Amino acid sequence: MALLSAVLRRYPFARYAQIAAIRGTVCGNDGVMTHPVNMPPRGKLTEPATPGPRLLRALEPEPRTLQPETDHPTVPVSRFMAHVRDARPQGSSIDPSCPYGAARFAVWYVTEGAAALRGTAPVDRALASFLASDAEEPWSGSLQRSRLMSALEGFGPPQAAVNDPDRYSWDIACRWLSASDRWPGLSETLAPTWVADTLSRVPAEGRGEPFPIGAWLLETHRRSPTYRARYDITTALGRVAFAFDMVLHHAGTPIRRLALNQALVDWFAAPMDGIVGAPSRMEVLVGLAVGWLQGEGADMAGGPEATVGARSLRRTYRGRACQRFPVLAAFSTLDERLWRGADTRFELIGMARSETGLGQNLWMSAKALSWVGLDPLIRDSEAGFALIDGSDGSAPDRGPGAGGTSRRTAKARRKAALIHLNADAAPQALCHPLVDRHPDLHAIGFLLWELEALPRAHHLALDLLDEIWCPSRFVADIYAAHTATPVHTVGKAISLPEPAPLQRQSLGLGPDDDVFLVTFDFHSSVERKNPIAAVQAFHHAFGKPSRRLRRPRLAPRRRARPRLVIKTTPPVEGHWGDPNGMWQAIKTAAEADDRILIIDRRLSFEALLGLVALSDALISPHRSEGFGYMPAYALALGRPVIATD
């Protein structure tokens, strides 16, 4: 304990970004946890995690892809791989039914496909074996290079080292680690075993106490003046501090885990004083850095008589550190199966920080669940499905109509998750290790869609979900026609904050003007939202402006007149949702008609509601909608709505 405390006193790890991220992550368990006293030490970083039940289903062979009869090795295309191909147009041009196309598709899937998923693409043993096996290129002779390396840029024949096998292996292994800068989602299971052996082997100069340091970490220390000046690795204090620094920096990058030699991992994963039930050295270090522990006097005893501090630290580390950086679970002394079995709290998964309808939908559900006492955990799909701040029960204390009564409390009887994503993005959430680790998880998809036609990329989610919730009968009928999974119309509860008190004069509107408002998200397809129809209807109703009578825009008019206000998020030139230049046509119309006002900046939600409240009517000319938030908001505020059918 004295050595670990000295490391934190000497070095400023508390200011590291990784420690700050752990400090800001909500605990994933409320402390209801049995104490496993017979748990053997953990510490395997390079073994792939056991796939969850949904991932196993998603990794089944895709029946639509024909496997040709050929002497060339081919890779079986899984259902998840076919799903990514259906969801991402970049992969639709690759034909995986021929050997060459299968190899190209497999490489695209683990690199560009993974990038589109904002994470690591699920890889089964067959795919990992195919891509990690030797390419057997004629030039290489006895030198090794995997099929994946052969296909990626930056792994060409290193001519300077081709006659030196040891130098060649080292050069290629280092290139593999540097590939994480370009393809951060590459799984470590795709690396040949010799890569990990080369990077983590312990040279003579790496030996020492309390643990040896592998070749790549040693080379990192040697090449960096900063590390050399900060860490004296000939001492136990400097060696532990340097290794802790390296573990933190590599915690979020799967490829770079290969550089951590096993003896180093085992030392940090071992329980304090070798007592089963005591926290590991890594748990203590993180606890000291984050502030969960204070100084050398902290009692970290283990065994059946483990102290409250030891039990709390192990639970908090598993809940916070491992939620933010799953690789740190290798240093946890709590059994994953017992841990996940004790956590039955309801989870909400989606774009928690997004201003889109999907983001609004998630927070509406969070509020509704809190009203009945099921304070949900919230995972942000845009941040690796990590728990976000504020998901620990900080929702409102009372529901509508509760009056002065106290808030209800409830507890989920089993683990459940409500997925607030479109169906084409739901499989990546359902198959993620942080979500799929619960074998009895009841997964519900709150799905929205706008068209009767259902894309092929939506079908895998329908097979992986246990039930589907929809906000309208229109959406429910769409999905019910394509799946046997139960589909329920749950409707929508609209609860709005007080609108911001906006003044018409501040926007250049007259107090007696007849104000018609059109509002839409530019990123949600201008073509679908169809605001040009509102401009055309406005001119049809009130006539086009006469150039002969047109006045300068800045000249105020005293008499009341019709006004059309078009509110959108900041436009993006060449956006996929505006293929026919609709936005340019709207700008041209506004330049010729000073009755049309464009507001193309972001507003707070309260300010947006204030804009609705000061208008006389909301115009919603959309071609298709899954629900229609803005019409609902306007009606809730007592404003008339003119909408398409």
Question: What does this molecule look like?
Answer:
It is built from 26 helices and twelve strands. The chain is α/β, with parallel strands linked by helices. The strands form two sheets. The chain has a seven-stranded mixed β-sheet, sandwiched between helices. The radius of gyration is 29 Å and the shape is globular. The relative contact order is 0.09.
**Uncertain regions spanning at least 5 consecutive residues:** 26-42, 390-406
Task: Name the overall outline.
Answer: globular
- What integer is the average pLDDT? 81
* Structural class by SSE content: alpha/beta
Number of strands: 12
Continuous helix count = 26
Question: Assembly state here?
Answer: single chain
Profile the largest sheet. 7 strands, mixed
Strand content: 5-15%
Q: How far from one another are the termini?
A: 70 Å
In short:
With 645 residues, this protein is of the alpha/beta class. Helix content is 37%, strand content 8%.
Task: Summarize the helices and strands and which ones pair or pack.
Layout: H1 2-10, H2 17-23, H3 53-58, H4 79-87, H5 99-116, H6 125-132, H7 147-151, H8 165-178, H9 193-200, H10 215-223, H11 225-230, H12 236-250, H13 262-269, H14 281-290, H15 308-324, H16 336-342, E1 347-350, H17 357-371, E2 377-380, E3 386-387, E4 416-420, H18 426-430, H19 433-436, E5 442-446, H20 459-464, E6 467-470, H21 473-480, E7 487-489, E8 514-520, H22 526-529, H23 531-542, E9 562-568, H24 582-592, E10 596-599, H25 605-614, E11 617-620, H26 629-636, E12 641-643
Parallel strand pairs: 1-2, 1-4, 4-5, 5-6, 6-7, 8-9, 8-11, 9-10, 11-12
Antiparallel strand pairs: 2-3
Helix pairs in contact: 1-12, 1-14, 8-9, 14-15
